[in-house]
Amino acid sequence: MTHAIRIHETGGPEKLVWEEIPLPAPKPGEALVRHKAVGLNFIDVYFRTGLYKAPSLPAIIGMEGAGVVEAVGEGVTEVAPGDRVAYATAPIGAYAEARCIKADRLVKLPEAISFEQGAAMMLQGMTAAFLIRKCYPVQAGQTVLVHAAAGGVGLIMCQWLKHLGVTVIGVVSTEAKAALAREHGAAHVLLTSEDIPARVKEITGGAMLPVVFDSVGRDTFNLSLDCLAPFGMMVSYGNASGPVAIPDLGILAAKGSLYVTRPTLATYTAKREDLIARANDLFEVVASGAVKIRVNQTFALKDAAEAHRALEARKTTGSTVLLP
C-alpha cells in the first residue's frame, strides 16, 4: 500500500483527497519509483477542474516527479533499481508516495541536481527547452516577449534566453514579480496593467517582435498578437486565465500574416531520443550555472490543496514542490 492524492470528481482544491491505495508491482516495461519530491504545475489545476480530462475517476493527478527506482518489470533496460530518476512527460499520477511508470519516460538525474530541483525543473525546464530550441529556435540578437515571466517556466526562460544572447521583455502582475524577472535576466519588465503592445512598440522602435511566448491564454491572446511583427509567431502554451477561443483566422492575415501554434511538451518529447535531448539541454544549462532553479515554496504532498490555492491565487514565484 501507499498514499496518494486523488480526485473523485472535478472541482476546487477541496476535491484533492489524501488516501491509502494499493501499490502494484511493475509490469513489463515499467519501473517502480519511490518519489522524493513531486512538482506542482498549472496543468495539475487543469486536470483537477476538468479543463483537461483524466482518463477515469478517481484519478491521481500530477505530471512531474523525482525519486529512486525500487524495482523494474520485465524487459526494462533504460533504468535499474537504485537509479536516481526524474520525469515530466508520463501520464498523470505523480501525486503519490510511489508509482509504477513506463521506464522509457524516465531520465537519469545527475548527482549534482537534487530531487527537489529535479521535481521542480523537469516539466517547466523541458517546456522552456522545447519552446526556445525546437518550437521557435531563438537567435542571438532577437527580442522576444515572455508572459508570466516570474513563474516557474518564465524564470527559466528569462535566464536561458539571456544566456543565448536574446533580449527578453517579461510581463508580470506585480512590482515584486517585476524585480524577480529582472533578477533572472529580463531586460525589460512590463506590468499586466500597462498597454503591452504600445510598450513593445516603444521598446523595439516600432519593429515589434518575431515571437511571443504566452502561457496565460484567454486574457492575453489578442494583445500578444498585437505585439508581433509581420510573419511573427504566437506560441500559446498555457491557459492560466482560461482556454483560448479559436479566432477568425482572418485576424492573422490582418495583423501581418502571423503564425499561431499550440504546442505540448508531450508531442515534442514523444520519441525517447527527443526526451533525452531536451533533458540533456536542461541539465547542461543548469549544471553550467546559466540557469538556476528556484524552489521558492514547498508543501507536504498531503497538503496539495493548500498548494493549489496558493498557485491559483498567484501567490507563488519560481517553482513549488510537494514532499511525500
UniProtKB/TrEMBL annotation:
<dbReference type="GO" id="GO:0003960">
    <property type="term" value="F:quinone reductase (NADPH) activity"/>
</dbReference>
<dbReference type="Pfam" id="PF00107">
    <property type="entry name" value="ADH_zinc_N"/>
</dbReference>
<dbReference type="InterPro" id="IPR013154">
    <property type="entry name" value="ADH-like_N"/>
</dbReference>
<dbReference type="Pfam" id="PF08240">
    <property type="entry name" value="ADH_N"/>
</dbReference>
<dbReference type="InterPro" id="IPR036291">
    <property type="entry name" value="NAD(P)-bd_dom_sf"/>
</dbReference>
<keyword id="KW-0560">Oxidoreductase</keyword>
<protein>
    <submittedName>
        <fullName>NADPH2:quinone reductase</fullName>
        <ecNumber>1.6.5.5</ecNumber>
    </submittedName>
</protein>
<dbReference type="GO" id="GO:0035925">
    <property type="term" value="F:mRNA 3'-UTR AU-rich region binding"/>
</dbReference>
<dbReference type="InterPro" id="IPR002364">
    <property type="entry name" value="Quin_OxRdtase/zeta-crystal_CS"/>
</dbReference>
<dbReference type="GO" id="GO:0005829">
    <property type="term" value="C:cytosol"/>
</dbReference>
<keyword id="KW-0521">NADP</keyword>
<feature type="domain" description="Enoyl reductase (ER)">
    <location>
        <begin position="11"/>
        <end position="322"/>
    </location>
</feature>
<dbReference type="InterPro" id="IPR020843">
    <property type="entry name" value="ER"/>
</dbReference>
<dbReference type="InterPro" id="IPR011032">
    <property type="entry name" value="GroES-like_sf"/>
</dbReference>
<dbReference type="InterPro" id="IPR047618">
    <property type="entry name" value="QOR-like"/>
</dbReference>
<dbReference type="GO" id="GO:0070402">
    <property type="term" value="F:NADPH binding"/>
</dbReference>
<dbReference type="GO" id="GO:0008270">
    <property type="term" value="F:zinc ion binding"/>
</dbReference>
<dbReference type="InterPro" id="IPR013149">
    <property type="entry name" value="ADH-like_C"/>
</dbReference>
